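USER:
Before I trust my own judgement here, I would like a peer's view. Write it directly below this note and I will take it from there.

ASSISTANT:
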Amino acid sequence: MDLTVTELRSIVDSEAECSLVDVREYPEYAAGRIRQAQLIPLTQIDRRETEISKRAPVYLICRSGRRSAIAQQKLQALGFRQVYNVRGGMLDWEARGFPVVRNERRAPWSLERQVRLLAGALVLVGVLLSVTVAQPLVWIAGFIGAGLVFAAITDTCGMGMFLARMPWNRAPKGGTESCPAERALVKE
């Protein structure tokens, strides 16, 4: 089951009992999120499903709706019945001018920016080492280039997934928010 960001906005504004789960990685979440959203990255959905109430509808959001659709399938396989994917995700939410909370000071760089920095640095180091140390070290740059081409073709990024697991990209303990009803369940 899918719903639009406009429908989600109505639900969030009504403060209805719900679980709004943001399945993006922490840097994306910190850069801009819906105030009531609880962060559970897609990579952690399976092991953190007990943090999501099965008593209330679950609304899943990501950047565009792709990862939240995958999370929806995972949660349905785990026995959740009322699971909704938010079509258009945060891109659509922000495009409509709906409110967004940002961790301006504590937010790490976006994963895309981190990947560009690391890939660029590895290419530069590979080229410099091939010129100053040994010519075959140019393959470092070639390997990174091949990885970027693979990432574009498959729409996956191994370097991004690696960087997402680094300590500076982890959410602080207790630093995420959830729907009002979800906060009450956590306190029980």
Remarks:
- Residues 111-164 form one domain.
